[in-house]
Amino acid sequence: MSFAGFGRLPAGASAAIKPWSVNIPQLTLDNLITLLKASPLPPPTYENSLPDQQRTLGVRHDWITATKEYWQTDFDWRAQEAYINSFPHFKAHIDDNELGPFDIHLVGIFSQRPDALPILCLHGWPGCFVEFLPILEMLRTKYTSATLPYHVIVPSLPGYAFSSPPPVDRNINSDGAARILNELMELLGFDSYVIQGGDLGGRIGRIVAANYRESCKAIHLNTGPMPPPELTDKSSPISASEQAGIDRHYLFKETGSAYAYAHATRPGTIGFVLSSSPVALLAWVGEKYLDWTDETPALDTILTCITLYWVTGCAATSLWSYRQFYGPGAKSHGTKEWHIHQPLGFSWFPREITPVPKAWVETTGNLVFYRQHEKGGHFAALEQPRMLWKDVEDFIGIVKLLKK
């Protein structure tokens, strides 16, 4: 398949990185359809059938019923797979000193310009690399491989999609994932790079920036959940929209975060539940795409991401990070050991589940760019690709000016 030059790795890339493509066995897809058809649904209840299409007590019965039917009869995985494969994919083999061998899947577009800037884009849960395809599409349409100003690298995090699952005999945390991602960038031949991340990708990106300051030169985030920090009279004032975001943050903590505590405290149990029933996975993950977004993504996009979780088995292997960020001893973006000394950029979206104000973000690093938007939610790269990427480019412009 021709990628118009975007699939040509940099000259310094290691031979441990090999071209790859997605090809889910037909038997796996057939088994998914069989399970969907055989899966019973619970009866309508008050909680899943609230008036006015409310979802305050959980995912709705009518949505699950209609989406299950569409998934098993009309959803075309092969069409989605063909589009996914229209971008260059690779597998990178990494021998990590602490966690052992890992194969990290990545999708991306590479420039032939010698001055191209490497940008590592990191997804979260329940996201995947598909979140960043709209940005990759936008860039490959606007540029050629000879003119693209960036290398844009989108890995599947350890335990997600087509990357290796964590080892069963050793505990992985986000520090380990950060180390593996820095090793990935070294294998690609990059001794310096910029990070963009949200959700878990933002947390891991922050750790990369804190632990590998010589390599990660700047980082842009679109999420930053943290407890209220101690502010001073020099802190930025909190606007009315930011206060509304703080209120939304607290509401989410009270009414929407039970899933995270379940992931953190009983991931083994949740892994069995989500891996044994595609309808359970649809309810658990589909709810997030409905509730965490400003505008609901296309149903095919939601089902593409959920299908990836099912066919790769990562519903169970992607839960490891929550133990570090929820429950006893939880760490956050405000953790001092992860303070960012490099330039930090931040994009604020109103329908983010935990939107934090500029004054809070300022306490976590060297904030040089902060922009509020009037629309957009948790999956910023998927929901507002042009808006998010403009922020990234404007942030990079500021960083370059700071260096002069």
Automatic annotation (TrEMBL):
<dbReference type="Pfam" id="PF06441">
    <property type="entry name" value="EHN"/>
</dbReference>
<dbReference type="InterPro" id="IPR016292">
    <property type="entry name" value="Epoxide_hydrolase"/>
</dbReference>
<comment type="similarity">
    <text>Belongs to the peptidase S33 family.</text>
</comment>
<protein>
    <recommendedName>
        <fullName>Epoxide hydrolase N-terminal domain-containing protein</fullName>
    </recommendedName>
</protein>
<keyword id="KW-0378">Hydrolase</keyword>
<dbReference type="InterPro" id="IPR029058">
    <property type="entry name" value="AB_hydrolase_fold"/>
</dbReference>
<feature type="domain" description="Epoxide hydrolase N-terminal">
    <location>
        <begin position="17"/>
        <end position="132"/>
    </location>
</feature>
<dbReference type="InterPro" id="IPR000639">
    <property type="entry name" value="Epox_hydrolase-like"/>
</dbReference>
<dbReference type="InterPro" id="IPR010497">
    <property type="entry name" value="Epoxide_hydro_N"/>
</dbReference>
